[in-house]
Specification:
By secondary structure, the chain is mainly alpha-helical. Among the domains are: 7-47 and 61-102, no CATH class; 115-186, Endolytic murein transglycosylase (Dna Ligase, domain 1, 2-Layer Sandwich). It has helices spanning 7-11, 26-44, 67-81, 83-102, 128-137, 144-153, 172-180, 198-206, 209-212, 216-224, 255-273, 280-293, 298-313, 321-332, 344-348, 371-378, 404-421, and strands spanning 115-122, 162-168, 185-186, 189-191, 246-248, 387-392, 397-401. The strands form three sheets. Strands 1-2-3 form a three-stranded antiparallel β-sheet. The relative contact order is 0.07.
């Protein structure tokens, strides 16, 4: 083991150079003692009774300290001589002091293309400084300056709003190239088919949480506060008010803002169709039944609308399986199966959506109707039909009947089709 100075002696326990002078050699100590004696004799004067002034004692010259140079030389020797393990130890424990000693600047940038992944969002109107701050705070770049200084050298760089999938600990240059690559942009375009329920829509929106930053829990909390969306006073939930369409969602939107876009689209469509604001809930409820019950033929939408009107006018129960299915799920959290036929439990369940139990319309929509269903709710076809049933689930072929006997015959036609096709929906 070398008898040279330790790192703690060179740099001190608190990370700064020690202030204590180096120990004196024996020769230096004797010289200092003799000088001290001479000084004492001068101060006490000459022999007794002498009036001669005391002769001034010559002070020893102060020795110039070479401590800083010695420390530097020792540091170099140690760094070069300790080997990889010793140098690593020295660097890990005394990096700030070593950097200060040699005038080495702290790094401000990572090296390479990074690791892992992270989603960052650039919104409309953000400046280069905003992007630099976002990248640093998201762990993409080491410092704000690393990316911002790069932008100063590239003043023509323009950023497109959106969400981007980047990596952690990227060099500023790698991060800039990644933001310029359209393949790294996370798409926030999403669509919903007619008849979609709120629960289905929220789950699908939550699938985009990596790009939107909005979780399922946040969406569910926003949907629960349905009155904040300006719904009619007789609305009981957001069901039916999230218009089924394709949306391009801007980055940075909150859960409430996303759902508000869809609600506003519903109001826009209803206003265009001429639906009075006070009649929105009733029309959407009828339209949602039409959307669920009608087949694929556009004319069937208007015929189903007529059946609804005729049965209500005759004080008949609507007895729609779609309401039995929805109501049971609403009341119990899930359906028993996916069959088009209602189970006995669904048929008798006393929930406010079940039209096998309660007369008239259910308390609200059972899904999101599209434009055709809304138009059909307002303009039912002319006819005396009281019954209908889809007899081919693949093509959507539907039979409309005036009497119960005709309807029962059509139901047998559906069951025959189910036996032949062995469709999963018939089980």
């Amino acid at each position: 083991m070398s008898d040279g100075p330790r790192w703690e002696e060179i740099f001190g326990a608190n990370g700064s150079e020690t202030q204590s002078p180096p120990p004196l050699t024996r020769r230096e100590a004797l010289a200092a003692e003799n000088a001290n004696r001479s000084s004492n004799r001068s101060l006490s004067g000459n022999s007794a009774g002498s009036n001669r002034p005391a002769k001034a004692t010559k002070q020893p010259k102060k020795r110039k300290s070479h401590k800083g140079l010695i420390i530097t030389l020792i540091s170099v020797v140690v760094l070069l001589g300790l080997g990889a393990a010793g140098a690593a130890y020295a660097w890990s424990n005394y990096e700030p002091q070593i950097r200060k000693l040699f005038g080495w600047e702290e790094p401000i940038d990572y090296q390479g293309s990074g690791t892992g992944s992270v989603i960052i969002t650039i919104t409309n109107g953000q400046l280069g400084s905003d992007v630099a701050k976002t990248l640093h705070e998201s762990g993409v770049t080491m410092t704000f300056d690393a990316f911002y200084n790069l932008l100063l050298k590239n003043p023509d760089v323009q950023f497109q709003p959106g969400s981007y999938k980047l990596k952690l600990k990227m060099s500023a240059q790698a991060a800039l190239e990644a933001l310029k690559d359209p393949n790294n942009k996370v798409l926030t375009r999403i669509g919903f088919p007619e008849g979609s329920t709120v629960s289905t829509i929220l789950k699908k929106l939550a699938d985009l949480s990596d790009s939107t930053g909005v979780s399922l829990e946040q969406l569910q909390a926003a949907a629960k506060d349905f009155k904040s969306f300006g719904l009619p006073s007789d609305a009981v939930s957001l069901e039916g008010y999230l218009f089924p369409a394709t949306y391009s969602l801007d980055p940075g939107l909150s859960a409430h803002e996303i759902l508000k876009i869809m609600v506003d689209e519903t109001f826009k469509r209803l206003d265009k169709a001429g639906v009075p604001a006070a009649d929105r809930n009733r029309v959407l409820t009828i339209a949602s039944l039409i959307q669920r019950e009608a087949g694929r033929n556009k004319d069937d939408f208007y015929k189903v609308s007529r059946v609804i009107q005729n049965r209500i006018e005759k004080n008949m129960l609507l007895q729609f399986d779609s309401t039995a299915h929805y109501g049971y799920t609403w009341a119990h959290g899930e359906r028993q199966d996916d069959s088009v036929f209602s189970s006995s439990d669904e048929l008798k369940d006393d929930n406010p959506y079940n039209t096998y139990v309660h007369a008239g319309l259910p308390i609200g929509p059972i899904g999101a109707p599209g434009d055709i269903a809304v138009d059909a709710a307002l303009h039912p076809a002319e006819g005396s039909w009281l019954y209908f049933v889809t007899v081919n689930l693949d093509t959507g072929e539907t039979v409309f009947s005036n009497t119960e006997a005709e309807h029962n015959a059509a139901v047998r036609q559906l069951r025959d089709w189910c036996r032949t096709s062995q469709s999963e929906n018939c089980k």
